[in-house]
Amino acid sequence: MQEFLLTTPLDDASFSGGNELDVFFSGVERRAFRMARMATRVDAEAFDIVQDAMLALVRKYRDRPAAQWPALFMRILQNRILDWHRRQTRQRRRFWQALPGVDREDDFDPVADAPDPVPRDPALLIERARDMERVEAAVRALPLRQQQAFMLRIWEGLDVAQCAVAMECSEGSVKTHLFRALQSIRGHLGDSHE
Fold first, then answer.
1. Within 10 A of 92 (CB to CB), how many other CB atoms are there?
2. 184 Cβ partners below 8 Å, 6+ apart?
3. Which of 2, 63, 126, 186 has the maximum number of C-beta atoms within 10 A of its C-beta?
4. What is the sign, positive or negative, of the torsion defined by CA atoms of 14, 15, 16, 22?
């Protein structure tokens, strides 16, 4: 795993909150990296996204109360991840448009959105899974917004309101994305036990 070296103006004598930010970043950096790595699947890209989010928090919000930093940082991180995905989508479109004779439609998969016919208990399936690699694979397979809702709510422990702030959407959207994420994860983990 990447070793995090935050090079920001935290050592600046004119900034009094540096030590608190150092403590905050040391507590959140590995989870943020894991979140970005799941979203990008590229360690170097994930590292850059986390570093950029940390710098943005320092530059824009270092004077805010420390209690606000977790939600603000997660919002910045999720925005950086969304920006990365948008850039990737634009690059793929340019690539496909550059190929002669290729007619490509959007990646619509009606089976992926179909409800699971077998009801399953998510807590039981996650307990049975115990293998973190399988859980991470299931989370990586989620669409980005579902992945964000799951990571923020379940792994980070933010409440629905904080998730809504971080994801810049309504609380209802957070609940919907989380519900769908849990259904998908349940299906992914449940298939291997049947």
1. 12
2. 138, 141, 142, 146
3. 186
4. negative
